[in-house]
Design goal:
heterodimer, A: about 110 residues, alpha+beta, Ubiquitin-like (UB roll), 5-stranded mixed β-sheet, about 20% strand, B: about 400 residues, alpha/beta, FAD/NAD(P)-binding domain, Enolase-like, domain 1, 3 domains, 5-stranded parallel β-sheet
């Protein structure tokens, strides 16, 4: 199972082993990682599962889709070049070692 | 009996969010969350979509895992009904005899299915889609069904119809009015969705009133319409809307009029009692301050945050922009704002392309925007409407007009 690490604004790290096919958002919610709200439940409707991906890892992620691009414009914390919605990051073997930083606020 | 704790009646989106937001804001008193279902709080939107379709299990429906409640000192009482409120003594009566004292009481009692007074409504095979238990029963029934009749062409009925068709079932939708989702969307959006579902093989009967559900050996066999037509059915979904759960509040002497009446702070006339989510009728800033009751995740969660803010000493009126979504097969409908009372609708984009938005106006004022497979329009719509900015009908219809720039423009 690929491992994904979540780092909050206080620097607290949580590393999870995630089943391939589960999203980075789902794993966070299911394991009680604070800082991911995911109000719409993963429908790419709310932009409350916003994360910043470690810059050198952006290339191994699937590209930003049309829905995600639209929702990223409405994030509560500043959108940056490495912003993604974690509901759209479905874990694959290539994502082993992914590191995501949680934003200041999601709402 | 009174305590300084917060008691929340109802553990769906609104109730759960109050508890979570209180802890996030540093509230240190006791938090008790009472739910009448026997499971951990779960998300409702996927019930009619991915869960019904078997794409996700219960684990991924849950709002949070069990440890969350322990870690955040939220006393969650599952399978418990509140039966009365003693306002003078500041306590809630629970079924079974227990009493719970409160410093503040939040009513997040939600709504229940509207059940039509039809003969045969009790037959096996008549289903609903609101709770996890109902969806579980529906999913099992759907697997064995061949002929499905859906009564009511709202979000739930249409979302279910899309799943049922994808599973190869014969689906017929009965709708009393002349169009789908007529209570919430403009005519062009209704027409587009009806055509799309029809192309996928769904049959529609508009202006159709069911008068009887008939069965054999206790199991549903057909639905009879006014006029005498009989539609074969081994599964009937009742999806004609909901009734707000206001009885607890009314019995305690609080005003209830299509929902528990609250002010712009979401407080009832009793300052120790708030009401939020589907059960609350609040003066909505995006509906000229008129009493408004909304059935939506956004409304539930934003109401919850507003009340949590007040309870930790940061009161503010509720002003959030309402938004909604529905996923029906490959179609995504996103709505920003409230379009009740619209007298003009303007198309942006061509419905024939499968992606368009409808800008809804009243007296030339932009009320809301419905987007079909145009997520960027929806994102801009939320920003425009939240900021109270206007786009003229001519600008809306001009696909080269830059919505993004309009949403970002400085006011005045």
């Amino acid at each position: 199972m690929p491992r994904v690490t979540y780092i909050d604004t206080a620097g607290k790290e949580t590393t999870l082993d995630i089943d391939v096919g589960t999203s980075v958002m789902q794993a966070a919610v299911f394991n009680g990682v604070d800082g991911i709200v995911a109000e719409c439940g993963g429908s790419c409707m709310c932009a409350t599962c916003h994360v910043y991906v470690r810059d050198d890892q952006l290339a191994k992620l699937p590209p930003v889709g049309e829905d995600e691009e639209a929702m990223l414009e409405g994030t509560a914390s500043e959108r940056r070049p490495n912003s993604r919605l974690s509901c759209q990051l479905v874990v694959s073997a290539e994502m082993e070692g992914l590191v995501v930083y949680l934003p200041e606020t999601q709402t | 009996m009174a305590s300084d704790g917060v008691v929340i009646v109802g553990a769906s989106h609104a109730g759960f969010q109050v508890a979570a937001s209180l802890r996030q804001a540093g509230f240190d008193g006791r938090v008790v969350l009472i739910g009448d279902e026997p499971v951990l709080p779960y998300q409702r939107p996927p019930l009619s979509k991915d869960y019904l379709d078997g794409k996700i299990g219960v684990d991924l429906l849950l709002m949070r895992p069990e440890a969350f409640y322990r870690d955040h000192r939220i006393d969650y009482l599952p399978g418990v009904r509140a039966t009365g409120i003693d306002r003078a003594g500041k306590s809630v009566q629970l079924a079974g005899g227990k009493r719970l004292g409160y410093g503040h009481l939040v009513l997040a009692t939600g709504a229940r299915n509207r059940v039509p007074p039809l003969p045969g409504i009790e037959l096996d095979g008549v289903c609903y889609l609101r709770t996890l238990a109902e969806t579980e029963a529906l999913r099992q029934r759907l697997a064995a069904a061949e002929h499905v009749v859906v009564i009511g062409a709202g979000f739930i009925g249409l979302e279910f119809a899309a799943v049922a068709r994808a599973h190869g079932k014969h689906v017929c939708i009965l709708e009393l009015t002349d169009r789908v989702m007529g209570r919430v969307v403009a005519v062009p959006t209704s027409l587009f969705f009806a055509e799309a579902h029809a192309r996928a093989g769904v049959a529609f009967r508009f202006g159709a009133q069911a008068v009887r559900i008939a069965g054999n050996n206790g199991r549903v066999e057909h639905v009879e319409l006014a006029g005498g037509d009989k539609l074969r059915a081994d599964l009937v979904l009742i999806s004609i809307g909901v009734v707000p759960n206001g009885e607890l509040a009314a019995a305690a002497g609080l005003a209830v009029a299509n929902g528990i009446v609250v002010d712009e702070m979401l407080s009832t006339a009793d300052p120790a009692i708030s009401a939020i989510g589907d059960c609350a009728a609040f003066p909505c800033r995006h509906a000229d301050g008129n009493p408004t009751r909304l059935e939506a995740v956004q409304n539930a969660a934003d109401h919850a945050r507003c009340v949590a803010d007040r309870l930790v000493g940061k009161p503010h009126p509720y002003t959030a922009l309402p938004w909604f979504w529905s996923e029906q097969g490959p179609l995504r409908l996103q709505i920003a704002g409230l379009t009740t009372g619209q007298d003009q609708s303007v198309l942006r984009g061509d419905p024939a392309s499968g992606a368009f938005s409808v800008f809804c106006y009243r007296g030339g004022e932009l009320l809301g925007i419905e987007s079909v497979n145009r997520p960027a329009d929806h994102a801009q719509a939320r920003r425009l409407l939240a900021a109270g900015r206007q786009v003229t009908p001519d600008q809306a219809a001009d696909d080269s007009f830059d919505l993004r720039a309009a949403a970002a423009a400085r006011v005045g």
